[in-house]
């Protein structure tokens, strides 16, 4: 059975460019038959500002429960986030804090995007720290995408497919290895 990866597309902005990277990874994974894939688009969820974790909400909406189940059932996660002023967007902080147990030991790979030359690399440290605090397993390999609006078209097709696929191969293999290691460890009795 193929593993399942959920790609969280973080940006909820009008005219967002980082979603192009989420589409690229979906296409890459499906074309190479590496995993089944879905995109968890935070723009579609339109969550209210964080008030409480899901487990403490008396009457969660169907959408809240569906989000929880998508994260929980994924074997691995790719977070595709833009960088806003050196940090990650409130939409992602909101989506992370909303859950807790669903993130525990979940292999998560971080892909960052920006219109600038550094590809969102400044967001990695703060995002990693937040994920560590909730016991998620962040994959060491990162995927910064500089000038994302020039490097990918609106359908997620990279301008330089060969070079992008080469970088993606290393990034995705690391995530798949962590997913397989987690599956093995889950099968062992401790």
Task: Describe it.
The protein is an alpha/beta fold. Helices cover 42% and strands 18% of the residues. A five-stranded parallel sheet has the order 2-1-3-4-5, with helices on both faces. The longest helix has 27 residues, at 161-187.
Could you give a quick summary of the protein structure above?
This protein has 190 residues and is α/β, with parallel strands linked by helices. Helices cover 42% and strands 18% of the residues.
Low-confidence segments, ≥5 residues, pLDDT <50? none
**What CATH architecture label applies?**
3-Layer(aba) Sandwich
Kindly report the name of the CATH homologous superfamily. Flavodoxin domain
Q: What general form does the structure show?
A: globular
Count the DSSP helices. Answer: 7
Mean pLDDT reading: 92
Briefly, what CATH class? Alpha Beta
Provide the spatial order of strands within the biggest beta sheet.
2-1-3-4-5
Number of individual domains: 1
Please state the CA-atom Rg, rounded to the nearest Å: 16 Å
The string of secondary-structure elements, in order, is EHEHHEHEHEHH
Number of distinct beta strands: 5
Largest sheet: 5 strands, parallel
**β-sheet strand percentage:** 15-25%
Kindly report how far apart the N and C termini lie.
25 Å
Helix/strand class: alpha/beta
Any idea of the CATH topology? Rossmann fold
Give helix % range: 40-55%
């Amino acid at each position: 059975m193929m593993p399942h990866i959920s790609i969280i597309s973080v940006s909820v902005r009008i005219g967002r460019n980082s979603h192009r990277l989420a589409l690229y990874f979906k296409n890459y994974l499906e074309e190479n038959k590496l995993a089944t894939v879905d995109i968890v688009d935070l723009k579609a969820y339109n969550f209210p500002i964080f008030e409480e974790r899901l487990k403490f909400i008396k009457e969660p909406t169907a959408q809240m429960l569906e989000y929880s189940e998508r994260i929980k059932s994924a074997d691995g996660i790719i977070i595709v986030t833009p960088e806003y002023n050196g940090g990650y967007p409130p939409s992602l902080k909101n989506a992370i804090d909303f859950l807790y147990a669903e993130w525990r030991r979940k292999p998560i790979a971080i892909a960052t995007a920006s219109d600038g030359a550094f590809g969102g690399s400044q967001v990695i440290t703060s995002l990693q720290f937040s994920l560590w605090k909730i016991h998620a397993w962040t994959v060491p390999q990162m995927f910064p995408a500089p000038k994302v609006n020039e490097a990918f078209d609106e359908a997620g097709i990279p301008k330089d497919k060969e070079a992008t696929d080469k970088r993606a191969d290393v990034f995705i293999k690391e995530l798949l290895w962590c997913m397989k290691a987690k599956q093995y460890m889950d099968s062992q009795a401790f």
